[in-house]
Amino acid sequence: MKLDIIGDIHGCYNELLALIEELGYKWQNDELNHPDNRKIAFVGDLTDRGPESIKVIKLVYQLVINNKSAYYVPGNHCNKLYRYFLGNNVKQQHGLETTVAEYVQLPENEQETVKQMMVELYEKAPLYYEIPEVNAVIAHAGIKEDYIGKQGNKVKTFVLYGDITGETHPDGRPVRRDWAKDYNGDKWIVYGHTPVISPRFLNKTVNIDTGCVFGNRLTAFRLPEETIISVPSQQPFIEEKFMKYEEEADN
Length: 251
Hints:
Elements: E1 2-6, H1 13-22, E2 26-28, E3 31-33, E4 38-42, H2 53-66, E5 70-72, H3 76-85, H4 96-104, H5 108-124, E6 129-131, E7 136-138, H6 153-161, E8 164-168, E9 174-176, E10 188-191, E11 200-202, E12 205-207, E13 217-223, E14 227-232, H7 246-249
Parallel strand pairs: 1-4, 4-5, 7-10, 10-12
Antiparallel strand pairs: 1-13, 2-3, 6-7, 8-9, 11-12, 13-14
Helix pairs in contact: 2-5, 3-5
């Protein structure tokens, strides 16, 4: 198996199309094919903040559900949109408001279609994917080695939100432990969730959320090649949205 794992899209539909083309995929009769029989995997956070979340939902639904030619694991923004579509009282903030604004502009019959697409995508997705053919685990915010193979609320919280401490930074962001420093496994852990300027490789983990929605790049990690392919963002650059880790501060 050959796999292209794509980082957080956040409604950046044009960049997604550009990356798919850059990776060498071609559309044939509503199906996406690659001459080397590669497959795409999405690491979650399809929607929110960016300009075209509805189009991203439709495209990912087509590839994952209709064509069964791609993998998808949900992110925390996917979880929040799913709960909104179920009718839960979810605060429309941190980007959800942009997706809802798009959604309510649709004709009613299309609203129902999009809602059902997202609900089905979310409900059929595993919390994380173990893909032994490429010796990898795909989890939105990462996963600890001893959680691999397990389910439950602790695992769900970790893969959606990261290793949160329960505290918050002054700007409201949750404080997260740097779990990747302590990872000693031999499987690749491919994740996103926390925007970084360049893909962050540490031990056998890689963060591929290169902050497309904040004006940087949309990135894919290719396995088994262990290479990076990315395309530039079309959004305004917002430097303060990117995480700087200790090793960068020391340079």
